[in-house]
Design a protein that fits this description.
By secondary structure, the chain is of the alpha+beta class. It contains 20 helices and five strands. The chain is elongated, with a radius of gyration of 35 Å. Keywords: Cytoplasm, Repeat, Ubl conjugation pathway.
Length: about 400
């Protein structure tokens, strides 16, 4: 027996197919390289093709099951090919020819001809057209209607989600974890390094905290604000619309109620009451926080603080829109923001019948997203990009747009 046969690798029987429909069986040792296997296949299906050395490089072998292109330098064993596997012999696509200089020039000329006109060209072409005033209030009103309707949808969906989650035996534990994630709110945090820099300059800590919150944690801007308002009698007054001490006390009270209250109830009622307390606690944490700068700016115009906070809440903390609301008919009212959508309306029924929405309503994270968007509409983009809540919001948006067009 020859030495090569004693130490030869295992022989594999491989089914080889071509795009033209040819099919045959190749028997090769497992230590055969893919390039050698390719040469054998070409020799079998295209006689005389190996006279051109480029023929081998112009073809490729693909593993049919995994759809993987086999590497020429690797062996059959290294590519993890098994006995009776199916391989496809395919000719590679030829690269597109490089464009000629004449074609490039023609393409550039065509692009120049299709180029959008500049401002001077537009003015020249429209000089003789009669001027028309566009009613921008209509577009603004439609956008406001959309926001109002979306809020109503979220209010009603929160109620549905709470009822569904109350039936989940693990809902309390899930919400405890989710609630813990909300304990540290970035808006309530103060940059300790920035605060220390200001206090080392001699500014009082409470005044430095206020300056940093008003100036988005910028030390330079906060220092300028402190110097500018050094003689202001109201410099140490708390920020309008923010009462951190009261919020902390309220949160502590609710925590005490949460631990003490349910212990006196029986098993099922215990969990239900505890879940209700967690819902209330989450809502308190998600309460609307008006932009302090916008509050101060609007109050300086002569508006009452409560009116200003209501205006900012209705208009998503947008100062200009809030000013228009205060000077206009003040619609929608803050009370309208807490009203849900008609549960018998075709829009709400269509949303509830959507399978993606139905599945999402059983996820506690979806309820947290709805609560957050309800009180902080500017966070909608964050939840739209979330892999869990994004699909739900996308379906709600599509259904709303579809029914709004009909």
């Amino acid at each position: 027996v020859q030495e090569e046969k004693i130490f030869a690798g295992k022989v594999l029987r491989l089914h080889v197919c071509t795009m033209e429909g040819a099919e045959w069986l190749e028997e090769v040792p497992e230590d055969t390289t893919v390039e050698k296997l390719k040469e054998r296949c070409l020799k079998h299906c295209v006689p005389g093709s190996l006279e051109d050395p480029k023929t081998v490089t112009h073809h490729k072998l693909i593993h049919a099951t995994s759809e993987k292109v086999l590497t020429d330098t690797k062996t059959v064993l290294e590519e993890n090919i098994q006995d009776r596997d199916v391989l496809l012999l395919i000719k590679k696509r030829a690269p597109p020819p490089l464009p000629k200089m004449a074609d490039v020039s023609a393409e550039e000329k065509r692009k120049q001809e299709q180029k959008a006109p500049d401002k001077d060209a537009i003015l020249k072409a429209t000089a003789n057209l009669p001027s028309r005033n566009v009613d921008r209030t209509v577009a603004h009103h439609n956008m406001r209607d959309f926001q109002t309707e979306l809020r109503k949808i979220l209010v009603s969906l929160i109620e549905v989600a709470q009822k569904l989650l109350a039936l989940n035996p693990d809902a309390v534990e899930l919400f405890k974890k989710a609630n813990a994630m909300l304990d540290e709110d970035e808006e309530d945090r103060v940059d300790e390094i920035a605060l220390r820099q200001l206090t080392e300059m001699g500014f009082p800590e409470s005044r430095a905290v206020k300056a940093l919150r008003l100036n988005h944690m910028s030390v330079t801007q906060a220092m300028e604000w402190l110097i500018e308002h050094a003689d202001d009698p109201a410099v140490d007054a708390p920020l309008p619309g923010q009462t951190p001490s009261e919020a902390t006390a309220e949160a502590g009270a609710s925590s005490t109620e949460e631990t003490a209250g349910p212990s006196s109830e029986a098993g099922g009622e215990e969990a239900k009451d505890e879940l209700t307390e967690i819902f209330k606690k989450i809502r308190r944490k998600r309460e609307f926080r008006p932009d302090p700068r916008a509050v101060i700016a609007l109050m300086e115009m002569g508006f009452d603080e409560k009116e200003v906070v209501d205006a900012l809440r209705v208009n998503n903390n947008q100062q200009n829109a809030a000013c228009e609301w205060l000077l206009g008919d003040r619609k929608p009212s803050p009370e309208d923001l807490d009203k849900g959508i008609d549960t018998n309306s075709p829009l709400f029924q269509a949303i509830l019948e959507n399978p993606v929405v139905q599945l999402g309503l059983t996820n506690p994270k979806t309820l947290l997203a709805f609560e957050d968007m309800l009180e902080n509409p500017l966070n909608s983009t964050q939840w739209m990009n979330d892999p869990e809540t994004g699909p739900v919001m996308l379906q709600i948006s599509r259904i709303f747009q579809t029914l709004n067009r009909t």
